[in-house]
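Here we describe the complex-level prediction in full. Unlike the single-chain runs in Section 2.1, the two entities below were treated as one system.
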Amino acid sequence: MGSRPHATRSVYLDHSATTPVRPEVLAAMLPYFGDKFGNPSSIHSWGRQARTAVDSAREQVASIIGATASEIVFTSGGTESDNLAIRGVAKSMQTKGKHLITSQIEHHAVINTFESLAKDGYEVTYLPCDKYGLIDPDDVRKSIRKDTILISIIHGHNEVGTIEPIEEIGRIAKEHGILFHSDAVQSLGKIPVKVDAMGVDLLTISSHKIYGPKGVGALYVRKGTRIRPQVTGGIHEKGLRAGTENVPGIVGFGAACALAEEEMPEESKRLQALRDKLINGILSNIPDTVLNGHPEKRLPHNVNVSVKYVEGEAMLLNMDLLGIGASSGSACTSGSLEPSHVLLAMGIPHELAHGSLRLTLGKSNTGEDIEYVLEALPPIVEKLRAMSVFGR
Amino acid sequence: MYNEKVMDHFMNPRNVGEIENPDGVGLVGNPVCGDVMKITIKVKDNRIEDIKFKTFGCGAAIATSSMVTELVKGHTLEEALEISNRTVAEALDGLPPQKLHCSNLAADAVHMAIQDYYSKIGKDPVSNGDKS
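The structure predicted for the assembly as a whole is:
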């Protein structure tokens, strides 16, 4: 029948997809499923207790991004925050204009929202990137028109880890009096994400990428910025997002932010060292591999490589049998029959996009994990190359 | 995502390689999915005496390539032309719906290899209709 490889280790390398809820966060959340179950809008003590918890969490979230608590709107996650920011501005500013600027390499939550608005009569400019996935601030400047009302550029890239020149773009946006949004879902907790330094008016962040629970995120809305609410109903979140607050989730998110803020300086260094060990190990031990994304302007936890002559899902399946969890930009793993739009926008040829491997590190990863992966990968690649149509 | 049979063919694929001086070659590619398959055959007395495959592709692509070679090896060319993409998927006890398109290449590659053989020996290409 043949042999099946045996996993001697469990190595999760898909932290950009999601992260486990850390014990401290879970502990902080539990009371709000139990005794402290109140609706924050209720007048009585159950409600007040819950309201206090939400207020505290709001402070914690504001702190990590250098905002004030009143500028934080809780949502159901990054996707909803992106929707609220983009649609919210599009609707509130439409009398000024209907031109929107974003990039070709945004997360689907951003791109698909812009595409939806385009169907509703908005005009969208999708800026190209260079081979590293970097957006040129000059391209932003050149595409600004009198009727431009929003610029949205991702901060730290979810696929290839490239860190965009947000501060520069922020300055350009300010110069022209245009609202500026950035999706910082991947960068929060990994690199400094401070709204004033970045010059953003709107910022998307999410809980489940920083060891908080899924189903909760936030949109930072700079004081004075008018956006049209997308989820309407009660007057929650200052009328910007209706719905009874997900108290346990929000408490968890706050706790996760507090911990991330505290640990980031050390943890980023640690992750970066492991990241570089993994990158160098792959590039030097496996021939015909190439790094995707910028080598330096890169999130400290992101590894994205293309392995020539083999396909991504085939690698992932082999790795999975060895206890290693990762992801790929190949069409077969995307569920949409297309390889990553990001890799293609970077000018990476289809075959290399299909052979991409994304390994994103996190708290649980150690040097031994990296060694395990570096030992496991070459034989996998060799075996797949032996049966490949392509090769040297 | 994949059942035991598919995983077996994926991890232990049968008939990997390339026949030297093949009697027929079938090269098919699906640029959308990114899978490419190359089937080479050796024909003797109207039977597929030997068959090998090379595939660039995902789990389903590799498993279906392996399975199709197993299904047609030793059979007559006519029997091999009868094999459809559905036959291959069924032989594997099924594939996830989003993976069925990946399996479309396997039977096509075998058919192409046989057509290639026919054209080499001067026989008219067989129209085998759409059997999938």
